[in-house]
Design goal:
alpha/beta; Spore Coat Polysaccharide Biosynthesis Protein SpsA, Chain A; 6 helices; globular
């Protein structure tokens, strides 16, 4: 079973360097889907780059893990599931529900399903597009069936993915949120007691779920410096 980490970096800076360093400690090198010598034309085109990468990588790898190279850090490697797609979750709806009120109604409908009631006590409930993973063949089907491979322009990718996710879940498509932060951990809007450090002084532990997430994400421009400093 083989997994490859992909990202979409169009400009290198200290955040992407720390991301690459976090992978290197496990002998991993990210596959950058962003074409060389190509200007950033809008977030919509990135989903076409993802789709092209899936097609290029099929037959060479079984699964893909995507991580936002600007503000994520791997504290543990992992092998994604081979039977479903997993998306990261965060504490707040983005883009802001004040501007897009249909998003709150959409999530309310999602969580009204009895199969999701077991996670209502957890604060991480809303799709975060900065981390996801799954089998390549299923990702290709997901993009084709819900139109993500057709996106263009300067769209809000997180909203497009959230809307597609909710539709897919309603249709019984094998896709789910990482509610217990087994794989991905967003750190924005942290409350006292959310996290602690493992005895090694490096690994971040989620006190509410009892898990040690694999990838940390400083979403919403959350300061990642304390995480970077622990792993120097």
């Amino acid at each position: 079973m083989s997994n490859i980490v992909i990202t979409a970096i169009y400009s290198e800076f200290w955040g992407t360097k720390n991301f690459r360093a976090s992978l290197k400690q496990f002998g991993l090198e990210p596959y950058n889907v962003f074409p060389n010598n190509t200007p950033h034309k809008g977030n919509g085109f990135i989903y076409q780059y993802f789709y092209k990468a899936f097609l290029d990588l099929r037959g060479k790898f079984d699964t893909v893990t995507y991580s936002d190279g600007a503000d994520t850090f791997f504290q543990r490697p992992f092998q994604p599931p081979t039977d479903r797609i997993i998306y990261s979750v965060e504490k707040q709806i983005w883009p802001p529900e004040q501007q897009f009120p249909h998003l709150r109604a959409m999530y309310n409908q999602y969580y009204s399903n009895p199969k999701h009631k077991g996670v209502m006590h957890l604060p991480w409930k809303f799709l975060n597009g900065g981390n996801w993973c799954g089998p390549i063949e299923l990702l290709i089907e997901w993009y084709e069936k819900y139109g993500l491979n057709k996106l263009t322009g300067d769209i809000n990718g997180q909203m497009e993915q959230a809307e597609a996710f909710i539709k897919a879940d309603a249709n019984g498509f094998p896709i789910e949120f990482d509610h217990f932060c087994q794989y991905f951990q967003t750190t924005a809007f942290e409350n006292k007691g959310d996290f602690d450090l493992a005895p090694d002084g490096k690994l971040l532990v989620n006190n509410l779920t009892g898990t040690i997430p694999c990838v940390l994400h400083g979403n919403g421009r959350t300061d990642m410096t304390p995480i970077y400093d622990r792993w120097k």
